[in-house]
Amino acid sequence: MKYPKAIMRYCPKCQKHTLQKVSIYKPGKRRASAIGERRHAEDKKGYGGQKFPKLAKPAKVTKKVTRMLTCPDCKKKFNTYGIRIKKFELVAA
């Protein structure tokens, strides 16, 4: 799917329509000090192996792509709902 790099959209913070920049949301690095990560590491330690079974064949073929829109005036970022798609491409339009 080809999607424009900038779209005209309403900004609820500015309360007006602005030409917002589109980017793809990428999750940051996971923190090893987070309580969930520490619990998972504790369960994996020693004999017994993986906490959850590693899937040999995943059920889903595609990943969900979340678009992130940035308002140029107030610099506020908005996440849109994820769309399940094989190929997502940002094009200048």
Jot down its keywords.
1 helix, mainly beta, 93 residues, two-stranded parallel ribbon, 4-stranded antiparallel β-sheet, single chain, elongated
Classify the beta-strand content into a percent band: 35-45%
Major beta sheet summary: 4 strands, antiparallel
Structural class: mainly beta
DSSP summary: helix tally: 1
CATH class of the domain at 1-27 and 62-93: Alpha Beta
Q: How widely separated are the two ends?
A: 14 Å
Q: Radius of gyration, Cα only, in angstroms?
A: 19 Å
Number of strands: 8
Label the CATH architecture of the domain at 1-27 and 62-93.
Answer: Roll
Enumerate the spans where pLDDT stays under 50 for 5 or more consecutive residues: none
User: H/E element string?
Assistant: EEEHEEEEE
**Average pLDDT for all residues:** 91
CATH fold naming of the domain at 1-27 and 62-93? Nuclear Transport Factor 2, Chain: A
Sum up the overall morphology in one term.
elongated
Helix content: 10-25%
Spatial order of the strands forming the largest sheet: 2-3-5-6
Description of the structure:
The protein is built from one helix and eight strands; from the N terminus they run βββαβββββ. The two termini are 14 Å apart. It has a domain at 1-27 and 62-93: Nuclear Transport Factor 2, Chain: A (Roll). A hairpin with a 6-residue loop joins β5 and β6 (77-79). The strands form three sheets. A four-stranded antiparallel sheet has the order 2-3-5-6, with no helix packed on it. A two-stranded parallel sheet has the order 1-8. It has a two-stranded antiparallel sheet with strand order 4-7. It has one helix at 35-44, and strands at residues 2-4, 6-11, 16-24, 63-65, 67-70, 77-79, 83-85, 89-91. It is elongated, with a radius of gyration of 19 Å. It is mainly β. Helix content is 11%, strand content 37%.
